[in-house]
Amino acid sequence: MIDWSRSQQLLERARRVLPAGVASNVRAAERPFPLFFTQAEGAILTDVDGNPYIDYVLGQGPLLLGHSHPAVLAAVEQAMRRGQLFAGQHELEIEVAETLVRLIPCAGMCRFGMSGSELVQAAMRLARAVTGRRRILRFEGHYHGWFDNVLLSVAPPPEQAGPRECPRLVPGSAGQTPGVQEDALVLPWNDLTLAERLFAERGREIAAVLTEPMMCNTGAIPPTPGFLEGLRRLCDQYGVLLIMDEVITGFRLGLSGAQGRFGVTPDLAVFAKAMGGGFAVAALVGRRDYMERFARDVNHSGTFNGNVVSMAAAAAALAELERDNGAVYRHIEALGTMLMDGIRALAHRRDLPVLVQGFPAAFHVAFTELSAIREYRDYALHCDKERYGRFKVALLQRGVRVLDRGIWYLSAAHTQEQIEQTLDAVDAALAEVQTL
Ligand code: PMP
Predict the structure, then answer these.
(1) What CA–CA distance (Å, rounded) separates 29 from 34?
(2) Mean pLDDT to the nearest integer, 344-369
(3) Which of 343, 322, 331 shows the shortest CA–CA distance to 400?
(4) Each residue's pLDDT tens digit, 383-399
(5) Residue 135 pLDDT exceeds 90
(6) How far from 258 is each of 12, 168, 183, 266, 297, CA to CA, in Å?
(7) Domains detected in the chain
(8) Predicted confidence (pLDDT) per residue in 98-117, tens digit
(9) Which residues form a coiled coil (predicted)?
(10) Which residues line ligand 1 (CB under 6 A)?
(11) Is 87 strand, coil or helix?
């Protein structure tokens, strides 16, 4: 039996000074309880009891290059010795911005920040300034940060969420101001007919459509063919800005983001996680004429925006991602396909109803009879989350760490041998949850 006693002791100590023992609410829900870690390198994470794990959490997505990537660390170390914060400009900001503008289809200009949450706010403010309208249309099950005006209908209990065709907005936290709900509209994702109906009624009230281009905060749900194109068309028709929240998909689904992969160009997009190689950085990119409003009448500020460490990390991470014509992406594609197919085959052999969907760099594993998960309610109503939770713990006990919500991330640092070890652990974990 695996020993987690040191983690347990630290959690007890932490709970005296940190609410729930953690710094981010999502971590409190981790099964069997939040673990403490001491070290991470490549695809391996080691906890305080000395247990190593093959890591598919990867910092919740940012570590596309793996933990402690040497080129990123060297760049950061070198840059930060010359200063950390100038409260003024430095050349690395231009370098990273030029790379983003070159790689991302919608990027005419960019603004830097420290987290996805804050730059989603900047994107919404800009959309309201451009259109002179208030409302933001978003989708059930999408997460856009923890702020009042976006923590709505992210994981609504189905009994509170109202009818599918006309969902109720469900706040995600106590203490949110009720006013923000008046500015938000919500629909199920991947249903263009419902979007068309809403636009026909209220299209001229909407400032922006805010969407994850692949729904990664509930499963790993690709857009159905024509859905993003349909949103683009509706936005053009009604003078609405299309904002893609690429915080997870950006650089994970390819060098041009999900927008490049799916061939639909938004007006604005938010990038974060994978662009920083494990360091805190985020970018809002978009059409030049819109972005230039930041130079005139739209405010966006931040003490740490564009700081030396963030920019050095981003410059180094982006250079690694571009190396050898996308070798990182080919590696992840090959190993991720092997892992996805392997999980499917093992489940099939045991006659277990397991669905594996998404892309090799970010895929979802669920216990369900469905042949595809297309929207939040499919997941909420038709996936056995209790069984997945037990499966997750069984994997952890065998040295494989995945997120409780079912998404698996892959990195350039994973090896074929680690994929084979993972599949052995998956087989044993499936056997464990089969009998219960
Ligand atoms: N948007 C999406 C799609 C996300 O997944 C997240 C974080 N998981 C955020 C925004 C918020 O980003 P951050 O945690 O950096 O504030």
Answers:
(1) 7
(2) 98
(3) 343
(4) 999 999 999 999 999 99
(5) yes
(6) 41, 28, 27, 10, 30
(7) 5-68+326-435 (3.90.1150.10), 70-324 (3.40.640.10)
(8) 999 999 999 999 999 999 99
(9) none
(10) 60, 115-117, 120, 143-145, 212, 217, 245, 247-248, 272
(11) coil
